[in-house]
Design a protein that fits this description.
- It is built from 39 helices and ten strands.
- Helix 32 packs antiparallel against helix 33 and helix 37 packs across helix 38.
- It is globular and about 95 Å long.
- The protein folds into four domains: about 190 residues, P-loop containing nucleotide triphosphate hydrolases (Rossmann fold, 3-Layer(aba) Sandwich); about 70 residues, no CATH class; about 210 residues, Tetratricopeptide repeat domain (Serine Threonine Protein Phosphatase 5, Tetratricopeptide repeat, Alpha Horseshoe); about 70 residues, Winged helix-like DNA-binding domain superfamily/Winged helix DNA-binding domain (Arc Repressor Mutant, subunit A, Orthogonal Bundle).
- The protein is mainly alpha-helical.
Length: about 775
């Protein structure tokens, strides 16, 4: 198993009020995956007052074959309104996928869960995308997005809108959008709206004709458009000369023109109003406060002020904040009279304020009610916790500074988020706790240690484990994530993530099995860890009963990764004993478990077991694709020993089909990986010695060692030296030294020259 991308247990989701939350939350079909907020997948409805802007729609439609359609303009420019109008006009004939981006999407798994769900809703025929909840966040880029791109290339035209892209901070999630933009098929029109400059190479896109962009100047109202709005749509009867003055004073800024329209309807002297109206951002903010907000009665004002603290709100949520009923009806009425309160769904259950108006209201609320923002967040957190939306509950608790409440929520639910690969989200939450609390709350340290290990961040995880052990072993009783003690949690963590050192691994695994009894949900994982340690040490007969217990105890609690992996190892052990029939049956059982539960994408040993069984019965060519699948899985998730074993078994079959050069490369890569392992065990060492004997050791081609040939092949791709070091589990200095040795032996001084020389002499 050894899988840093997936927690080896299943946690049931918290109960939610299904009727209340049906418009907000959609759980991914086959399992409890990252929550998908349906309100993020719908554009806001186009109001009757909205002016159709045909010249801009024509520009948007012209981007059908460009890599990027960019709508970049300041707040109040009408970006979202324009894109919603386009959606309303064209979505019947052209599939549209819409995602309203927010700060919560700063996790690749969360972002792409929303994007993929939006794409599926636009094109129900899209299939074959692996569940993101089974993959780590780093694997979104190297596993899921390439598959998504390939599937989209087989489909028809699609418009993918990422609205409010400026709310996505720098990080893996934003980088993944850049990658998608660079690789999306021509049939996909990527549309990004943003207040700030996006992280794309815009000059290059312009130079190649791959960019359609609408900027602030493009979105300004012309005199003709302002006349069509004021007189054609709103029937205000404003003279042409006054319209020209209004457009000049607002510089055509849509927010300013719409605000002027609101007051012109009530103005006793429209001309005098036009002459004194100023359309600057500061003036508009003052105008919103003095005229728009002030025009409502006191209860409506209080509702708007308090609700402005929240990104999204509903009647029941506002009832909890006000501690009385009836706010749903008030919100419905406000949405009919206030252009700045935007319904987020067709049933008018959820709303948000236009960002400009919301910012103003929140500032006013903070001025009027010191400490009020924190209290709103506390009540919102309690409401979300009661209604099963735990992520929102944690966010609000942290925003309120209610760190004890946030810790309790996180401790009780972190396996849920880990089980859906939201490691980035979890780490971001842990970082937001005060340093003193982070250092002294063993529960937070345990969460950080597990999540960092799952994310493959070994050195950072070691820091957290050391901090846990410095605190001693406080007696909390059973921990909320199911462990019987802090000691057993740390022991099992060390046993699962051995990082190539079998010395302490088996000791920790046995201790975890001792501490986690038959009734523990972790018992099957501990049994698996003991079995794996024994097998790697060359004791398969002792390992088999532990794997048998792991499969048996994991089945009732539906811990399918453990069950599938244990059955796979039992199959491999049966094959090594010459028990062919049992080997086949166990491999088939493991494969069926993997397919039925969806874990076959991440459990490389299942592919390995089936490949070994096929090798005996049908020959190497039938086994080869499964070995490649096992290798892909272990590259993505596996520990060093697992990856080395997969490489060596792959090399053996490559030799059988005559691919000796590729076999030598696989052996060299495995040897490089094993050189980093303090104690990899006798099984993998035996496999390495066998393959080295079969391939004759170093190739000697141009004097390059097998390890240098591996690095040379990787140099032909896009990976940097740092990337190659991570791929091979070695330091960057090691890769740099090997690269310089390659240059010296080939008589070159650059990467490009080395690749050319290697190709000319047949090395690659």
């Amino acid at each position: 198993m050894g899988n840093p991308g997936k927690l080896p247990w299943v946690v049931d989701p918290p109960a939610a009020d299904e009727e209340l939350m049906s418009d907000l939350i959609d759980t991914q079909a086959a399992e409890w995956g990252p929550s998908v907020l349906l309100t993020k997948l719908r554009p806001p409805p186009v109001r009757d007052e909205t002016l159709p802007r045909q010249r801009l729609l024509t520009r948007l439609r012209s981007g059908a074959h460009a890599r990027l359609t960019l709508v970049a303009a300041p707040a109040g420019s009408g970006k979202t309104t324009l894109l919603a109008e386009w959606y309303a006009a064209d979505h019947i004939e052209t599939p549209f996928a819409w995602v309203s981006v927010d700060e919560g999407d700063n996790d690749p798994v969360v972002l792409w869960s929303h994007v993929i769900e939006a794409v599926r809703r636009a094109d129900p025929g899209l299939t074959g995308i692996p569940p993101l909840s089974l993959l780590g966040d780093a694997s979104v880029l190297d596993a899921v997005l390439p598959i998504l791109v390939n599937r989209l290339s087989e489909r028809g035209r699609l418009v993918l809108v990422l609205d409010d892209f400026h709310r996505l901070p720098a990080g893996l999630a934003r980088d993944s959008v850049v990658w998608f933009k660079n690789h999306a098929p021509p049939s996909v029109q990527l549309v990004v709206s943003t207040r700030t400059e996006p992280p794309f190479s815009l000059p290059s896109l312009r130079a190649h004709g791959d960019l359609v962009e609408l900027r602030g100047n493009d979105l300004r109202f012309t005199i003709e458009e302002a006349a069509a709005l004021l007189n054609g749509r709103l029937h205000l009867g404003v003279p042409d000369e006054d319209i020209a003055v209004l457009v000049a004073r607002t510089e055509g800024w849509p927010a300013g023109v719409y605000l002027a329209a609101l007051s012109l309807e009530r103005a006793t002297d429209p001309r005098e109003f036009v002459m004194r109206f100023g359309g600057s951002h500061r003036h508009v903010m003052d105008f919103l406060a003095d005229e728009v907000f002030a025009s409502y009665d006191a209860p409506s004002q209080e509702l708007m002020l308090r609700a402005s603290v929240l990104d999204r709100f509903s009647g029941p949520l506002c009832d909890a904040i006000f501690e009385h009923d009836g706010t749903g009806a008030m919100l419905a009425e406000l949405s009919r009279t206030n252009l700045f309160l935007i319904p987020l769904d067709g049933e008018a259950n959820w709303y948000r304020f236009h960002h400009l108006f919301g910012e103003l209201l929140k500032l006013e609320f903070e001025r009027q009610t010191p400490g009020g923002v924190e209290e709103i967040h506390r009540r919102a957190s309690a409401w979300h916790a009661d209604n099963g939306t735990v992520a929102e509950a944690i966010e609000h608790a942290l925003a309120a500074g209610a760190f004890e409440e946030a810790a309790d929520l996180l401790v009780s639910s972190w396996p849920l988020f880990g089980n859906t690969s939201r490691t980035t989200t979890l780490l971001n939450w842990v970082k937001r706790f005060p340093d003193e609390m982070r250092r002294n709350d063993v529960r937070l340290l345990i969460i950080a240690a597990w999540v960092l290990s799952l994310a493959g961040l070994r050195s950072e995880a070691v820091v957290e484990i050391d901090a846990i052990e410095r605190l001693g072993k406080p007696d909390f009783g059973p921990l909320v994530d199911g462990f019987n003690s802090v000691e057993s949690s740390v022991a099992l963590l060390r046993a699962i993530f051995a990082w190539g050192d079998l010395g302490p691994q088996l000791v920790n695994a046995r201790r975890a099995a001792e501490l986690e009894g038959a009734d523990s949900p972790w018992r099957c994982v501990a049994c698996w860890a003991v079995g794996w340690g024994l097998y790697c040490r060359g004791e398969p007969e002792e390992a088999d009963p532990w794997f048998e217990e792991a499969a048996a105890s994991g089945t009732p609690v539906e811990q399918w990764i453990v069950v599938g992996s244990a059955l796979a190892y039992r199959s491999i052990i049966a094959g090594e004993r010459g028990m062919g029939e049992q080997q086949q049956h166990l491999a088939e059982d493991a494969a069926e478990i993997g397919r039925a539960s969806g874990v076959d994408e991440i459990t490389g040993e299942i592919h390995l077991a089936v490949a070994e069984s096929l090798l005996v019965r049908e020959g190497p060519r039938e086994a080869l694709p499964l070995l490649e699948a096992a290798l892909t899985s272990h590259r993505r998730f596996g520990q060093p020993i697992d990856l080395a074993v997969a490489l060596l078994r792959y090399a053996s079959v490559l030799r059988m089909v005559g691919q000796h050069s590729h076999a030598s490369g696989a052996v060299a890569e495995a040897q490089t990986i094993l050189d980093t392992c303090p104690n990899p065990g006798v099984v993998v060492q035996h496999l390495l010695e066998r393959e080295l004997a079969s391939t004759g050791g170093a190739s000697g081609a141009r004097g390059l060692s097998e390890r240098e040939l591996v690095v040379l092949r990787l140099l032909t791709g896009p990976l940097s030296e740092n990337d190659i070091a991570r791929e091979l589990y070695v330091s960057r200095n090691t890769v740099h030294s090997q690269t310089q040795s390659i240059y010296r032996k080939l008589g070159v001084s650059s990467r490009a020259a080395a690749i050319a020389a290697a190709r000319s002499c047949g090395l690659i």
